Sequence to fold (615 residues):
Amino acid sequence: MAPVRPNPFIPFTARLKDSIELTPDVKLLRLELEDEAVRNSLKYQPGQFAFVSAFGVGESPFGITSVAYQKDGMEFAIRRVGTVTNALHELEPGAIVGVRGPFGNYFPMEEYKGKNIVIIGGGIGMAPLRPVIRTILDNRQHYSQLTTIIGARSPSDLVFVNEYESWSALPNTKLELTVDRGDANWKGRVALIPAVVKELQLSPDNTVAIICGPPIMIRFVLVELKALGFAPQQIVTTLEAKMKCGLGKCARCNVGEKYICQDGPVFRLDQISTFLEQF
Amino acid sequence: MVKFIQKTDLLAWLEDLMKERTLVAPAREEGVTRFRPVNKASDVVMDSGSTDLSAKDWFFPPSEVLFTVSKADGKAVITPTTLAREAVLFGLHPCDAQGIALMDLPFLAEPTDTIYAEKREKTTLVGLACRQACQECFCASFGSGPFDKSYLDILLIESGEGYIVQPVTEKGQKLLTPAKVTESNIATPQPPAVNSLPIEGLVEIAPKIFNDAYWNRVADRCIHCNMCADVCPACYCFDIRDYTGKGGVVERVRTWESCQAAGFTKIAGGYTPRPTKGARLRQRFYHKFLYMPKQLGKIGCTGCGRCVRVCPVNIDIREIITTMQKSGAKIGAGSS
Fold:
């Protein structure tokens, strides 16, 4: 008898434990997988993603924003932009959703040990970076300087605000905030993220820069990092792409010989620059 | 001596097979010939030539339910789609069988698409040799031909009042058990001559002409009808959506999709990495001639000629291959 293969399209069922408003259009959904055995054995790494289903509406891929070792449910920070995210935002705690994953590669946190880490996140691009920060803070002695640069369109669009204190409390741990447009209460920086990268004069020595955000932000951050002397091998990003299956089959996220869902979503710049197309 | 079955005995065999299995064969439906389950052997179009739609329909249909979700007592009950009966896919031509072998590459690769794999395991492929070559086909380029048995379980070659029977696999041999096959000294006809195009070297040429204006020029006349992808035996892009049916039962449905569609790569927020027709048309041919060979080991084309026949604006894959070869020669000459 051939071994029973799991049907890769079928999600785990999960309960919505909490739905917390992070910004006017972003909610943090905390999900608890219903099957206890799965709940206890499911492993995932910073940078991996999963599909979340609103049954009857559809499923969409999201970066997992929690760390597996906390065992407090899977978290997704979801911006309301379309039909599926709209349905997920409407759900009340206790609702049943589907979770399919984890998929994709992840940030090689072991490889980064002993290095300075610069994390650059724009808007909801912080979602897959949050578990990277969490992992570094929980293993602080293994990593050198941590500089986190977070930007958003406006102060009310900043995500995970109540965690910022812990993201800058430890020694050698810096947090830089910026917004495109301030408001009456904003006393911080008003600048685009690439300008902040330039302003901070980050040193490329023994450093890796991890970026996630809108494509236009990434493009201009790359310009600044290159100007500061960062080599392509020192720059890592996680690519967003239209995806339907996560299995390297539906071909939505096909770019060159790669499937972002299987070969990515985490790529170094030297890998991305071999793509024939800009993604 | 060859194995032989009379035409009437063949129909009787098919009727017999239908008792236990689903018979999927070329049949007329709303003006097109396509592979679909038939209820009686006489519905089978025995001389279909190249069917309008390819044989991929059975394994990878235009739309199929992946699973259903129903809610009961606050719980979600997920029921996967399974194939109840074994099946016989009858009347496919050698290029169709090769198309299925190409479908196998993505769908059977890890993580295996179990829905596809189950259908594949439970289906026996009974092929019909081509009586004549299609005008637009160039299957010889891919090592196939009118009598090619590769990827089939049984090949039937029409001769006189019946068919020469060539079992290829054990699965095929087993299916023939109830058939009235006799030994005969009837002559095996000569296979008709088929066209061939030079396909060697496309993998090397493609990256060099990626930014050539040629792709935009060809795409100028594309009208996004996606017919090329629908009829293609090797195109496997798909979409997944939910539908809520009677009684609130949710169906998660997979449907064909095409990389030629404008929104194919559009992500949340509106960014589209492949925003122009030229980029999308190039993606289709590069996926076939460069990415598939590199990822999965084979060119994503069987030379069946269907896309040539259906394209309303005469975009011709043969012309594209020829142009790529010519520019490859030019690049080669320029660099020497």
Q: What stands out?
A: The radius of gyration of chain B is 22 Å.
